[in-house]
Design goal:
Number of strands: 24
Mean pLDDT: 85
Largest sheet: 6 strands, antiparallel, barrel
Strand order of the largest sheet: 1-2-3-6-5-4
CATH superfamily of the largest domain: Trypsin-like serine proteases
Distance between the termini: 78 Å
Structural class: alpha+beta
Length: about 425
């Protein structure tokens, strides 16, 4: 019994000594990094996302074996004391159960309030109150070379801290499968390992300037989503459950030297205007087909995604200065991106692809296909069922319209179409 009592008292004695030691820590050791970590760490959580999968038979293509549980680990940040948690969308993708573990050891099951794979952000809700929270800061005034701190749970090791500098802004990074191109990332040499995804990147003022999201394996280079961009995504996810597309009324194509030579354009880099939709912000601003947009808010444009990125951190209705080349002329105009009016995406679907849809008791059905249209050339017929768009299952026509507007920024719309017992994947250019 005596030994057991000694062992039981040992941790208490250690805590007491630690308290004394903390009180005696010289001020020189309490660096700005230490102060930032003490302030932010209580709001950083561990996220465990559990999925149930079945393996595919490599020879016959069917499923075999029983269900198998897989688990993904990541990080998150409590941004509201009433239980709102921000993380990466890829951390919780496909999860059947999500558990958030706080620094004090509480395990809280989480619901998904909204997620957007393009932005790689997800907003979760846990049933708890008065949690330690750190709101998102600003990323518009960042300084290259300033010290930054990354906090997260790499390899499941909770609340790990690494430091470095902000190496660059506005980085463009391809996805792992090469099918997507993410723009406007912050780059840092603060070590970001697997499991750091969803944790905060913080400056020495204790402000969350980004959400860690990616690494280039074996390089020590990490990337984070800027806080300004993350804030607009969070606002939309909390209000609508999904990131709402912004509408300029432009169809664009990235310009390279070969395309510029073929079209006889005056510049070799920029974004070529392919179409301007009537009664759109671009039409009202004076943009014309054939214009080349060369810069937005003073930053050169090399790809059409970069114009979308320029608006991604701004509130809808905010104008940005766009530099335009039209033949030999150079001029600037103010371009606005706004929330699209209801039904606009379906108008684009009809005008650009020649496809009209309606809803019956089982979902969305193709109502009409215009002769000679892209939809007809793709093989679509009246009576076909539109099951999904851009990887999202569809519940109504307006949801399809929103996916059309998102696809307008990417240049193509990916549809899953059902006919009889079969489903077909179609990638339609926009």
């Amino acid at each position: 019994m005596g030994n057991r009592a000694a062992f039981a008292l040992a941790p208490l004695a250690a805590l007491a000594l630690a308290g004394v030691a903390a009180a005696q820590v010289p001020a020189v050791r309490r660096t700005p990094v230490v102060e930032v970590v003490e302030r932010v760490t209580p709001a950083v959580v561990n996220i465990s996302a559990e999925s149930i999968v079945r393996e595919v038979d490599p020879f016959f293509g069917g499923l075999f074996g029983g269900p198998r549980r897989t688990q993904a680990l990541g990080s998150g940040l409590i941004i509201d004391p009433q239980g709102v948690v921000l993380t990466n969308a890829h951390v919780i993708e496909g999860a059947s159960k999500i558990v958030v573990t706080t620094r004090d050891g509480r395990e809280l099951e989480a619901d998904v309030l909204g997620a957007d794979s393009d932005a790689d952000l997800a907003v979760l809700k846990v049933q708890a109150k008065n949690l330690p929270a750190i709101p998102l800061g600003r990323s518009a005034d960042l300084l290259m070379g300033e010290t930054v701190v990354a906090i997260g749970n790499p390899f499941g090791l909770s609340h790990t801290v690494t430091t470095g500098v902000l190496s660059a802004r506005g980085r463009a990074v391809p996805s792992e499968n090469g099918e997507a191109r993410y723009t406007d990332f912050l780059q840092t040499d603060a070590t970001i390992n697997p499991g750091n995804s969803g944790g905060p990147l913080v400056n020495l003022a204790g402000q969350v300037i980004g959400i860690n999201t990616a690494i280039i394996q074996g390089t020590g280079i990490g990337f984070a989503i800027p806080a300004d961009r993350a804030q607009r995504v969070v606002d939309d996810l909390l209000r609508f459950g999904a990131l709402q597309p912004l509408w300029t009324g432009l169809r664009l194509e990235s310009l390279d030297p070969e395309l510029a030579r073929r079209e006889g354009l005056p510049v070799a880099r920029g974004v070529l205007v392919v179409k301007v939709f009537p009664d759109s912000p671009a039409a009202r601003a004076g943009v014309a087909v054939g214009d080349v947009l060369v810069a937005a808010d003073g930053k050169p444009l090399a790809a059409r995604e970069e114009l979308t990125t320029a608006f991604s951190s701004l509130a809808p209705g905010t104008a940005i200065k766009v530099d335009v080349r039209r033949g030999a002329r150079s001029f600037a105009l103010a371009l606005v991106a706004e929330r699209p009016p209801r039904g606009r995406g379906l108008e684009v679907l009809d005008g650009a692809l020649g496809l009209k849809v309606t809803r019956d008791g089982r979902g969305l059905i193709v109502d009409d296909v215009a002769r000679g249209s892209l939809a007809e050339r793709a093989g679509l017929e009246p009576g076909d069922r539109v099951l999904a768009a851009n990887g999202q299952r569809l519940s109504d026509a307006e949801q399809l319209g929103l996916e059309v507007l998102r696809a307008l920024d990417r240049g193509s719309l990916f549809l899953v179409v059902g006919r009889g017992r079969f489903a077909y994947n179609l990638n339609l250019p926009l």
